[in-house]
Specification:
heterodimer; A: alpha/beta; Rossmann fold; eight-stranded mixed β-sheet; two-stranded antiparallel sheet; 7 helices; 10 strands; B: alpha+beta; Transferase(Phosphotransferase), domain 1; Tumour Suppressor Smad4; six-stranded antiparallel β-sheet; 24 strands; 24% strand; globular
Chain lengths: 241, 436
């Protein structure tokens, strides 16, 4: 429209954050980190289609990698077309405490120094992937601080255990998601690539849309997303939950 | 995935070839197919559908599309293994999504073209309702537009049902009438299901979004919620919706710096359109049957809005003349250049600002007509002397014109009426217009 005052302007949208928390410690080297890199490339190529289907929310993507230290790939969440990926390399220890601290800051409102929107935010999607036990032994204290964050409580959380299924590892991850059903054990690189994709894309699709209502009333978007993800994961080999 | 590329299906003696996978929605998968040498879209449901749904779809196909704008199911595909699908036309490539308009990616060439699209939308819903259907799950994802012509396409028509019936999907909260979001109990048991009246409410939301680029119930109250989840949406759109421009309850005004588009656009909308929104979004919250602006009422109001648009000679911004406003612009609201001089055509109850490119419609000269979208004239400039303007006619009969000296002349049905002040135009025995 030849309309100087409004040209190119869009509707105010809610903000949906999708975050990948990626363990890139030394043990991830090889197939695992390769699968993660491939999966994220797949996702960023599909994401524009998901975004095009809805004006209810703007989807923003972030990634946090952690080994000896935790480090953000971008200093702030990026819109779908602007998130570019450089392949991660694996090296160093598994400083989970550092990752949880970075997450705690990130999960605060922008006006409080974090990255969550001050107005109109949708509960974020957190996808955590690791193949080993933390080398920082005080991780549970740091998790307890993280758990106090309102944005963490409402987030849709998934944890992927890559080639590790000891009770101890499961305990670490179940404590993160708060729900053993959203901890998945992954046994092959191909399964890892598929699972990351299914979760990121299905959850973004469901959660970027205004809440659906059926005859029994309003439906919970996190629950709808979890059911849809569970449905789709049935077709993927090499996954257990 | 139900099909692979190059699969073929035989259905009632016809061969359908699967050419490509186009995408998937909540309910089904969509494929590009070829049948009888023509390309179509095929939708197949992922899960088993209810017998009601199956019956409804079959019936809709049999009854046919209510208007050309609906991308209506054409052929039912009832597979032996219980799968259900249908064939429909493909969406032509000149159409872009209404979502892309909302996000600022695509826009209409002019405001007049955007209003034509809105009028077409109302007209399509009028026809849908007249045939006893209601759309039910009306949301931003169902609509498409041609940016240059304002043509409309309505997709996702498989939930359209006979009014007062429902197939289980009620909609997305941001686009729904509050009584449906709340699940109000109705007399005789059960809950209020989507119908013509809730469609009208949702239609007004879509129109507000088109005109103002915002949701009519999202304002200051958003600040009450850290997270806009289903509970927040239930309150904002169901339990306690407050129109952002409620005349007396100012608690939910658009937020400065966040709802910028709404704040800027609402200011320049004609009063009668504002009143129609207020009526639907304030009085219509409770009186669902009487206080929700109907598609026909919208058509009339939006046509009037379109009639009084004038483009700034300097920047092209389209503002209203303000025939029925208290305030008139002396300067362009966008670039502040002085507003230009123009003539108006006054005919019956209509007044049309005769700006270049302005269309005159059948309904302007025939008050019994409902052809709001059939033009009978267009304002053009003379090729030899561009400062001379006229109305190029596209009528079935000639018209008579009389200038201020009393001289009468006949203009052919496809001739040009010169735009000069005080010229009277006799369109027919009962309809005389005047240029002022």
């Amino acid at each position: 429209m030849n309309d100087r005052m409004t040209f190119g302007e869009g509707i105010a949208r809610q903000e949906l954050n999708l975050l990948f928390v990626i363990d890139n410690s030394g043990s991830m080297e090889g197939k695992n980190i390769g699968a993660v890199n491939n999966a994220i490339r797949d996702i960023i190529s599909i994401m524009p289609e998901i975004q095009e289907d809805t004006a209810d929310a703007v989807i923003k993507i972030s990634a946090l990698k952690f080994s000896d230290n935790a480090e953000w790939i971008y200093s702030e969440p990026k819109e779908v077309g602007d998130f570019k990926w450089s392949d991660l390399k694996a090296d160093g220890g598994t400083n989970l405490s550092g990752a949880y601290d970075a997450l705690s800051v990130w999960l605060s409102k922008k006006s409080n120094g974090g990255q969550m929107p001050d107005i109109g935010g949708v509960a974020p999607i957190l996808i955590f992937m690791t193949d080993g036990l933390p080398t920082s032994y005080d991780w549970e204290d740091h998790l307890n601080t993280l758990k106090k964050k309102g944005w963490f409580k409402v987030a849709l959380k998934y944890a992927l255990a890559i080639n590790i299924d000891t009770d101890e590892a499961m305990d670490v991850l179940s404590k993160f998601t708060g729900n053993p059903e959203t901890v998945l054990k992954i046994y092959t690189a191909e399964a890892l690539r598929k699972v990351i994709k299914v979760i990121a894309i299905t959850a973004s699709k469901v959660k970027s849309s205004s809440a659906a209502v059926n005859k029994t009333g309003g439906m919970n978007n996190n629950a709808i997303a979890q059911n849809a993800i569970a449905d789709r994961l049935e077709d993927v080999d090499g996954v257990e939950w | 995935m139900k099909f692979k590329k190059n699969d073929t299906i035989t259905h009632e003696g016809k061969t359908i070839s699967i050419l490509d996978f186009l995408g998937e929605g909540g309910q089904g998968e969509v494929y590009l197919v070829e049948m009888d040498g023509q390309k179509y879209a095929l939708k197949i449901y992922k899960d088993e559908v209810s017998s009601d749904f199956r019956y409804n779809l079959k019936n809709n196909i049999k009854k046919g599309s209510p208007a050309d704008e609906f991308l209506w199911p054409k052929v039912l595909l009832d597979f032996d293994d219980g799968d259900l699908g249908y064939i429909m036309d493909l969406r032509p490539s000149n159409y872009v999504s209404f979502v892309s308009y909302l996000t600022g990616k695509n826009t209409f060439d002019t405001k007049a073209i955007m209003l034509k699209w809105c009028i077409t939308l109302c007209n399509a819903f009028k026809k849908l309702h007249e045939q006893g259907y209601s759309y039910q799950d009306l949301n931003d994802g169902s609509f498409f537009f041609d940016p240059h012509t304002g043509d409309l396409l309505i997709c996702d028509n498989d939930n359209v049902t006979a009014d007062k019936k429902n197939l289980g999907i009620l909609g997305k909260m941001r686009y729904m009438a509050p009584e449906i979001v709340r699940g109000d109990k109705i007399r005789g048991g059960g809950v209020q299901l989507p119908d013509v009246h809730s469609d009208r409410f949702s239609l007004a939301i879509i129109l507000f979004m088109a005109l103002c680029l915002g949701n009519p119930f999202e304002g200051e109250r958003l600040k009450n919620y850290d997270i806009v989840d289903e509970d927040a949406e239930f309150e904002l759109f169901g339990k306690d919706p407050v129109f952002v421009y409620h005349k007396t309850d100012k608690s939910n005004r658009p937020i400065r710096g966040y709802h910028s588009a709404v704040l800027r656009r609402w200011a320049y909308i004609p009063l009668y359109v504002k009143e129609a929104f207020h009526r639907t979004f304030v009085d219509g919250l409770n009186d669902r049957e009487n206080e929700r602006t109907t598609p026909l009422e919208w058509i009339k109001l939006l046509s009037k809005y379109r009639d009084e648009l004038i483009a700034c000679g300097n920047c092209g911004y389209e503002y209203i003349v303000g025939y029925s406003e208290k305030k008139h612009y002396e300067n362009c609201p966008s670039c502040n250049a002085a507003t230009k001089d123009f003539c108006s055509l006054s005919v019956g109850r209509n007044t049309v600002a005769l700006d270049l490119g302005k269309m005159i419609y059948t309904t302007h000269v025939d008050k019994y007509s409902s052809e709001y979208l059939v033009p009978i004239g267009k304002v053009i400039a003379s090729k030899r002397n561009p400062s001379l303007w006229g109305i190029k006619l596209a009528l079935n009969t000639e018209v008579e014109i009389k200038d201020n000296t009393g001289k009468v002349k006949v203009v052919e049905k496809d001739g040009i009426i010169p735009i000069v002040r005080n010229l009277k135009i006799k369109f027919n025995e009962n309809t005389i217009g005047e240029i002022k």
